[in-house]
Design a protein that fits this description.
Length: about 190
């Protein structure tokens, strides 16, 4: 094998290795990064970045009512919407079943909050199931954290996750209050 053939073979092997690495860090169903990407990002020190944690609302009900295939379609559509909303330099990571971490490098708090609002607006959508007979509504609860002091990505995710659960708690309290008011109206009338 001469130099040119060897060089070509080495380049092809590097490309194959890069493809395998990309596959190993990508969720096969949604196309979002998987948690393996977090170990890479956690070793990267970003000086100014933000994190959004997104948790799909009532996803268990979607799966229980419409089936897991429909739930998968909802996840795929939700990821597509988020990918089309975030910047190409951002990282969308499937953190758990229906929970996603969005890492926004070089993103101020103001810009991150603006992006969060765009995600919130665009993520309230409908997915038509495979049989085209049912529309499924979905939305996300979103938590936000902005880091400016070289915190690790995992610490920032934890803080954004804490904010997410504060949002979810407020939503539950609001739902309980509405239900109580409705029940009281029934008894009063």
């Amino acid at each position: 094998m001469d130099f040119s053939e060897t060089h070509t073979a080495v380049i092809a092997e590097k490309q194959k290795s890069s493809e395998y690495q990309n596959i190993s860090m990508t969720d096969s169903m949604t196309g979002a990064y998987n948690r393996r990407m977090l170990s890479v990002l956690n070793e990267t020190l970003f000086s100014d970045y933000s994190v959004i944690m997104a948790d799909m609302n009532k996803f268990k009900i979607i799966n229980d009512t419409h089936g897991h295939q429909a739930g998968d379609q909802v996840l795929i559509e939700a990821v597509s919407i988020i990918k089309n909303t975030i910047r190409h330099t951002d990282y969308l990571i499937r953190y758990g079943g229906d929970e996603f971490a969005i890492i926004l490098p070089d993103c101020s708090e103001k810009a991150g909050l603006e992006l969060l609002e765009r995600i919130k607006e665009k993520s309230e959508g409908k997915v038509i199931t495979e049989d085209s007979s049912t529309e499924i509504n979905f939305s996300f609860s979103l938590g936000f954290y902005s880091s400016t002091d070289n915190e690790t990505v995992l610490k920032s995710i934890k803080k954004a996750d804490e904010e997410l659960y504060k949002v979810k708690k407020k939503q539950i309290i609001s739902l309980i209050n509405k239900s109580c008011k409705h029940i009281l109206k029934l008894f009063i009338n």
